[in-house]
Design a protein that fits this description.
The chain is mainly alpha-helical. The protein contains ten helices and two strands; from the N terminus they run H-H-H-H-H-E-E-H-H-H-H-H. A two-stranded antiparallel sheet has the order 1-2. The longest helix has 18 residues. It is globular and about 60 Å long.
């Protein structure tokens, strides 16, 4: 419910002015950026993300910097500005895979998938496969099931583009198995749709 989300974010933002806490300001900018992005207001979303990035850079908050750059990469990927997306994702890959991890997700590993998607959408399938495999290997070692699902989905997409239908379906089914383990209905649905 984006309208309610925005309303409460505005209330929280008003309270922030009384607290004078830069970390909370950065968190709120990220929330507002995500709301704007989901509402389709990409320009405003980018403004919020850049505001967050400026704050976390001042705070030297490495984890937040990595995920903020990742959010900006996702934003550019969504609007098909592939070069900008790749530039932001590339910045994220320079962070330590294990020191920029939150909720079992590594920001650089997510960036590998993002770069893989950029190459997939620009029909550079060998490069897309390279980054998908990088992400999959890391996801195995880190036991990141969502990362495994996303990498397997991308590998399935690449095989489908190469008209290797049976192999693609095998990868989609593997992605579904992994996604069910952490109850990600969006990834399950996406892969069944890919199969159909």
């Amino acid at each position: 419910n984006l309208d309610s989300s925005y309303k409460y974010a505005q209330h929280a933002n008003a309270l922030l002015n009384k607290l004078n806490n830069r970390k909370y300001e950065a968190d709120m900018a990220r929330i507002l950026g995500r709301i704007m992005q989901r509402q389709g207001n990409h320009e405003r979303a980018l403004e919020y993300y850049l505001e967050q990035l400026s704050i976390v850079q001042q705070l030297k908050d490495t984890l937040s910097m990595a995920f903020c750059l990742l959010d900006i990469g996702h934003l550019f990927l969504a609007i098909k500005d592939f070069q900008s997306a790749k530039n932001y994702y590339s910045q994220v890959t320079k962070f330590d895979l294990f020191k920029t991890e939150a909720f079992g997700r590594s920001a650089p590993n997510l960036a590998f998938i993002g770069i893989g998607r950029v190459y997939y959408y620009t029909h550079k399938l060998d490069s897309a496969r390279f980054y998908a495999l990088q992400s999959y290997e890391f996801s195995l070692s880190a036991i990141d099931r969502q990362g495994q699902s996303e990498a397997l989905t991308l590998l399935g997409d690449i095989l489908a583009d190469e008209n290797r239908t049976n192999e693609a379906i095998k990868y989609y089914l593997l992605a579904i198995e992994q996604a069910k383990l952490f109850n990600s209905l969006s990834i399950v649905t996406q892969n069944y749709q890919n199969i159909s």
